[in-house]
Give the backbone structure.
Amino acid sequence: MKKTALLLLFLIAIVFKSNAHKDISVYEKYGNVKVYLRTGFNYSDIEKIKIIGKLSEKLCAKLTFKDTLFVEYIQDYVDNYSKDIYKFENNTNWSFRNGLDSISNSDSITSGISLRIIADKINISNVLSLVEYAITHQNDLSKKLMFQNVIDRWSYNEQEKEIKLKAIPDDLLAQIFTYKSVLLQEIISLPIYIKTEEFIGIQTYWKNDKFTFEYKFHDEPLEKLFEIEDYFYSINLNNESMLIFISQNQFYYIKPSDDNNSKLLEVKCTTYVPFTAYNIFRDKIVLYNGRNDPTEDFYILLKDKRKIISKFE
C-alpha cells in the first residue's frame, strides 16, 4: 500500500502542478432576472445561484415586477473580507469588480433592482427573502442601507485596509432572513432539479431548504439516498456513487442500497481548494489536494469499510 500511495502521489502531483488556477464566472438570465457569480472552484454555490435565478423569476411574476432584477454574488472563498456584505441598488449597471469598489458597466443609469452580495456562502431561501423584500420596498431601498466598516484583505500587497461602505445592517438582515411569507413558502416548495438522469445515475434537486440526492435506475421507483440542508461541493465518481463534502474536512460517500450513506467521514484539508477524487480501484478511492504541498492532503478511502487511511499507512 505504501509503494502504491507514493507512486500515485508522484503522478497526481505532476498533474496538479501543470494546472494554473483561474476564477469561475457564471452568468445566467431567466426572464427579467439576471444572476452573476464569481467563485474559485466548482462549489455548490454555482448551483445555488442558478436556483435563485429560476425562483426569483417566479417571485417577480407573482409580484408583477417586470423590470430588471440583477443578483450579483462574489463568493469570498479565500476569506478576504471581515464580514459578509449585502446591499441594494436601484441601478442594474453597477457591479463589484475589484474588491469592494463598485463600478458602472455603462454610462447610463438604469432602473430595476440590484442585490449585491459578497459572502463566504449563501442560503437560497435567505437570498429569495431579500429579493422579495427588495421588490416590495423598491422605492426606499437606499434608505435601508447604513455605513459599515469592513476589513479588506484583498490587495496583493497583503496589507489590510478598512473600508467604509453602505450595506444592509445586520439587524435588518436578520429580520428579513427570519420572516418567510406565504408566497415565499409556496415558491421554495417547488422542486428545482440540479442534475437529472435519463436512464441510470444519481440526480439532485432542491426543495424546502434541502438538497435531495436520489438514484434512478430506468423505470424503477426512485431511491432516496441522502438529504442535507447545505453542502460545500460534490464529486461524481460514476453512475452509482458520489462524494458530498459538507466542509473542507468532512464528507459523505453515498451509493444505492447502502445503509452507511449517513456515515460522516473526516480528512484534514490544508487549503480551500476542493479535493480531486480518483476512482481507479475497485475497492478504493484516492483523494488528493496537494496544491500547497504535494506531501499533504492525500488520502485513500476504502469504499466498503468507509475507512480513511493516510498516504503512508
About this structure: The chain has five helices and 21 strands. The radius of gyration is 22 Å. Residues 45-62 form the longest helix (18 residues).
